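**User:**
My hope is that you can spare some time for a protein that puzzles me. This is the protein in question:
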Amino acid sequence: MSITPNYVEAVHWAQDYAMWNRREMMRLIVEALRKPLPPFNITKEAINCHHNYVATEEHFGEQVYLTRKGAIRAGEGELGIIPGSMGAKSYIVRGLGNPDSFCSCSHGAGRKMSRAAAKHRFNQDDMEIQTQGVECRKDTGVIDEIPGAYKSIDEVMENQNDLVEVVQVCVKG
């Protein structure tokens, strides 16, 4: 199967649309924060990375269509976010530009069971136990996102220490 230029153009349009939406959400959040907080200045750019997308890039001397499914770009010096589950920490990372990974790294902890399997195996009591101390939804509508349905973010990070360096660890509470 070959990728047509029309498909790539449509995907890039959708990715640009998503980026503008993220920028607008960030603008609205900063605007809302300015009301209750003392005056502040934004000193650094927000990390704006996306996952599950198609890019046209050069790798190993060739122009390629690269699909990052469950992955983000981790080019040398590029900042990214790698989230853990609802109950686990997340990481701000800086890419190392590893050519063998096509300058990519994981997007997050990754599922160890399907959404359907999580809904079958876990209940609301499990959700409350696994997210104790974390402010989040704990109702049956999010059982498929329960921490037990995801891999260990610490193990995932250890397995990609040749792809990214950790800049900051973000804990949830």
Notes: The chain has a mean pLDDT of 92. Residues 109 and 153 are 5 Å apart (CA to CA). Strands lie at 53-59, 62-68, 71-73, 79-82, 90-95, 104-106, 164-170.
